[in-house]
Amino acid sequence: MTDLHAKRPRLTRAKNKTHAVIQIAAEQLFREAREIQEREIRTPKHNVTDATQLGDYRLRKRKEFEDLIRRVRGNKSVWVKYAKWEESQEDYARARSVWERALEVDYRDHTLWLKYADFEMKNKFVNDARNVWDRATQLLHGVDQLWYKYIHMEEMLGNVAGARQIFERWMKWAPDQQGWASYIKFELRYNEVERARLIFERFVDCHTKVSAWIRFAKFEMKNGEIARARNCYERAVDKLGDDEEAEELFVAFAEFEEKCKEKERARCIYKYALDHIPKGRAEELYRKFVAFEKQYGDREGIEDAIVGKTRFQYEDEPNTLLEESCGDKQRIEDVYERAIANIPPAQEKRYWKRYIYLWINYVLYEELDAKDVDRTRDVYNLCLKTIPHNKFSFAKIWLMAAQFEIRQLNIDRARRILGSAIGMAPKDKIFKKYIEIELQLGNIERCRKLYEKYLEWSPENCYAWSKFAELERSLAETERARALFELAIDQPALDMPELLWKAYIDFEISEAEYERTRALYERLLDRTKHLKVWISYAKFEASAMDEGLQESDLRESDYEQKRKSVFERALSYFRTSAPELKEERAMLLEEWLNMESSFGEVGDVDLVRAKLPKKLKKRRQIETEDGPSGMCAIYIRTGVVYLLKRIETKLLAAATDSDIAITCRYEEYIDYLFPEETQTTNLKILEAAYKWKKQKIASEDD
């Protein structure tokens, strides 16, 4: 052992600890790590010299493929490689057998059929290829690519009759328009116009669409058959005149007549289309008609077209601004009536939001412009009857109707409207406005009944409870207000309980009922121990000291003791029952310190400062859904420290015995150390690394 120690080199301590002139970069570390990696192992090449070696090679490869197929039978790429290897060995029977076995696994994959047929065609097995195509198109007749490939093969072989027969078989399955178009182009390539015309007849019967008829008519036009093309358009109008795409058909028909120099026919088609197509789908048609009239029409025709287009725009979206600017009351009311007659089809409020403003504009016009009170009232009543109140309602309409009656000095009718609103569709806005109206009229009993209805409909509404109690307090009904607050806080569910408790406490403080206020705080602390509750309680005791010294015989020390008692209880709770809430505990102490400082010489600041914690900056591990984040590494080599982010594992593995590599995934946070706690020693990562290094050097020196 002594000899071994004598042979080992002795590590000397670095006397000069300043940074070196030549620094080791991260690039150099990566380069060293890459150099020590093992090289990729490549399979050696074999040269086959005789038939025996060739047979052994084939046997070995087939065994490898068969073993691989047994493991991953559903992997199609393995089958394809196997079949192509057999093809490369010119063993076509075996290759064909592999293709057939692959199809047994999944015959629905059309790519297998395509590669199988390509194999047969490439090796000039035409009949076998036809057999494959027949089977493929019979099993997967919905895959157009198989039909195209089959037809292309027959056409390349010059078998036009066979290709036509395949097209006929395909057309029985009613393919899409592109399939029919391919059949027609095939016939036209061989100048079979009559056959193509017959195929077009079958095409429009199979696909009764505007695009199919337009394609048929253009085919006839291209062949100079104008009468036949016009006949196609007329038949299409008879069948598809009411179709959603009829606009495209009429435009194409009119443009056809325009090309044939039949301007009157084109004008008649445009006018017929504008009379029969719904306005919402005729925008393009109007644009084409105006352009046509500008090109071929006279001045009167152009003006009629432009006026008709403008009228179409207003008719498409009801707008009364044009009529109101003219001042014709009858036409204005007629437009409004036509607009409100378009009731939304679905009883969902999002569809009615824009519709309801038609009614609002209508009633405002009748009241402000037409000055017709009776008609305004009738419009309001009709609007309220139209809205499905069992599904949804609009508080705005109810309130506008009631305010209209108030402006007419008809209070009873306004009350009936608001009462109906509460009975049919109660809402917060309706209750608030109704109570506000009655309060302005001085009807206190009605306000109380409305508040009772309000709370009966929504007992969890803290706003209603607070306002009801505020009303009673304004009437000097202290006991009523207190009873309302008691009922409110006893409710099983409240939307904003913190506001209700605050209102109750403020009420008792305003009444100078300090004992009741303390009891309220104690009841609130039984329900929640939130930090804000403790601070509010302590602030109350501090404010009660100023008021209490003037009105009671208690000494200042008694109030001071009560205030400190609240803080002590809060600290005891956070220390024993919720030790994890250190931040809240620190905030409580800071609030206590500020309060004691505000009292000047009377405050006991030293007592609180002794309890203040120390702020410690610590680190903790980060865990996310995709694993630890913020990864870094500290790499120490020969006394030089490097910080590398997102370092690879291979680089850490390259460290020598004298190196240190430490990975960490941490984030910094603030912790609090209170005086009664004992601080545990938490050395930092670098300090631990240096300590370990020193211990190792010392042991080697010994």
Automatic annotation (TrEMBL):
GO terms for cellular component: post-mRNA release spliceosomal complex; precatalytic spliceosome; Prp19 complex; U2-type catalytic step 2 spliceosome
InterPro entries: HAT, HAT_Syf1-like_N, HAT_Syf1_CNRKL1_C, Syf1-like, TPR-like_helical_dom_sf
Signal peptide: none
Pfam families in alphabetical order: HAT_Syf1_CNRKL1_C, HAT_Syf1_CNRKL1_N
Transmembrane regions: none
A single GO BP: spliceosomal complex assembly
Keywords per UniProt: mRNA processing, mRNA splicing, Nucleus, Repeat, Spliceosome
SUPFAM superfamilies xref list: TPR-like
Domain Pre-mRNA-splicing factor Syf1/CRNKL1-like C-terminal HAT-repeats: 226-304, 335-510
Record-annotated Pre-mRNA-splicing factor Syf1-like N-terminal HAT-repeats domain positions: 64-208
Family in the record: Belongs to the crooked-neck family.
Function: Involved in pre-mRNA splicing and cell cycle progression. Required for the spliceosome assembly and initiation of the DNA replication.
Name listed for the protein in its UniProt record: Crooked neck-like protein 1
Source species: Sesamum radiatum
Classification lineage: Eukaryota, Viridiplantae, Streptophyta, Embryophyta, Tracheophyta
